[in-house]
Design a protein that fits this description.
Blueprint (H helix, E strand, L loop, with lengths): L1 E2 L2 E3 L1 H13 L6 E9 L5 E9 L5 E4 L4 E4 L4 H4 L3 E5 L6 E5 L3 E4 L5 E4 L20
Parallel strand pairs: 2-7, 3-6
Antiparallel strand pairs: 1-2, 3-4, 4-10, 5-6, 7-8, 9-10
Length: 131
């Protein structure tokens, strides 16, 4: 399902609806995607269930709400949000055409083009950087 700047797979759409129901999310809350400095590849994704902030871009629909932090737009435009179900690693996955490479943990990436990273917050180290 394409929603302007992002696409949700059918599995991600259904999983997001389920997550928002489990979290008793209000109609103003959804999955908020942002990008922070950090991780082993330079930038890392952040995903949280929270209320839409004033400048956030909106994607999804009334049941599966996705908010994108404005400073993350250039890094996430054209991405696909999927949901993987496996014994070793289940959860939302970002398939990002703007990533030159991704870390093995899947939460960190190096952008194809270096945007204005000064506006990004500093994130934590990704799992593969921690001992």
């Amino acid at each position: 399902m394409s929603y302007g700047m992002i696409t949700l797979t059918n599995v991600a759409h259904a999983s997001l609806i389920s997550l928002l129901k489990r979290k008793s999310a209000t109609s103003n809350e959804g999955l908020r995607l942002s990008v922070q400095k950090g991780g082993c590849a330079g930038l890392q994704y952040s995903m949280n269930v929270e209320a839409k902030q004033e400048q956030d871009l909106t994607a999804g629909d009334a049941e599966a709400r996705v908010y994108i932090a404005p400073e993350a737009k250039e890094y996430l435009e054209g991405m696909t949000l999927d949901y993987s179900i496996s014994l070793a690693d289940s959860g939302f996955k970002i398939i990002n055409p703007n990533a030159a490479r991704s870390c093995g943990c899947g939460t960190s990436f190096e952008p194809k083009k270096q945007g204005n990273q000064d506006s990004l917050e500093q994130g934590e180290a990704c799992e593969s950087e921690q001992a």
